Amino acid sequence: MNSNNVLKFPVTAPLTHVPKDNIKKPEQVASEKMITSRKGVQFLSYEDWVEYIKDLGVTSRAEWLRYVEANEIPPYLPVSPSLFYGRRGLWQGWGVLNPNAPVIPQSEEDDIHSRGGVFASYETSSEYAKAAGIKTMTEWVEYHQKNEKPKNIPSDPRSFYTRKGMWQSWNHFLGNEEPYDYHQKGTLEKVKRWFKENNITTSTQFLEMAANKQLPDFVPAAPTMLFGVKFKDLLAKRQKYVTFNQASKEVKKWNCSSMLEFRAKHRELKASGNKLATQIPSAPDRVYKDLWKGWTNFLQG
User: Fold this and answer.
1) How far apart (Å, rounded) are the C-alpha atoms in residues 293 and 301?
2) Which one, 72, 108, 127, 134, has the greatest CB density within 10 A?
3) Beta strands at 35-36 and 112-114: parallel, antiparallel or unpaired
């Protein structure tokens, strides 16, 4: 390889700032070692990326995210290196940036191999958190802002262990007493019945009730995480529209003479909370197309 084409990395600089003189132009970093994306953009080889990032003083994913937020990233650095190099089978985890970082010991049989490196088991990470005296998710974040995190402990244990099918809850992970017996037979079904009985049809509707402390004691504020389900598994099904005859009978009371008048009145009644109006479609000509005989027939009979 021509030595004139070998990439020269910037000198070591503070985490939040790199002098502009050290940011090379695209033509200055082009070399045989560059990786060309499908869109024709050239990025550093994985080995060069590791050397470059070390020279910036970045030693972890958290530090990289802070750096990206505070600086303009050169075009030859992928914003998501784990994804970019991972797709090419090159990624070896954030731990390569800080090989001397502490590691929580455990049996190799318990190691969890991931695209981001080798991580501790759920049980090992949980014991680590308990030993550190961490009691909440907020404390977990604050603790690692002040203390070096072992490289085999995931930064976001909830996301990491959820992907592995191991996560239960922050309380369980940190050794706190659960406020509910979530595994009690029938508890999930009871919550589902509550969603149905109260006609909770959207996650926004539920979250607003949670924020306003309108939930009964047996309904957790984060049911999807604690029960391991999706909102669609909990939400009540939207009520079906009334029949054509029922809709037409009700609409005749509105004294509308045109489609535009109908839609204006329909919006007004729905906004005021009129329950029957919510069961009448705003486009009855499409919903009742098999019975439709025109707007005059629908509005005035």
Assistant:
1) 10
2) 134
3) unpaired
Residue 232 CB partners (closer than 8 Å, separation 6+): none
**Cα within 13 Å of Cα(235), Cβ side:** 13
**Two tokens, residue 210:** 């949670």
Bridge partner list, 114: 117
Name the most confidently modeled range: 5-19, 50-64, 182-196.
50-64
The secondary structure of residue 42, as a DSSP letter, is E
Residue 166, helix vs strand vs coil: coil
Confidence of residue 174 (pLDDT cuts 50, 70, 90): very high
How many C-beta atoms surround the C-beta of residue 65 within 10 A?
Answer: 13
Locus of tokens 């650095």: 77
Reading the block at residue 207, the tokens are 């979250």
Q: What angle do CA 34, 36, 40 make, to 5 degrees?
A: 135
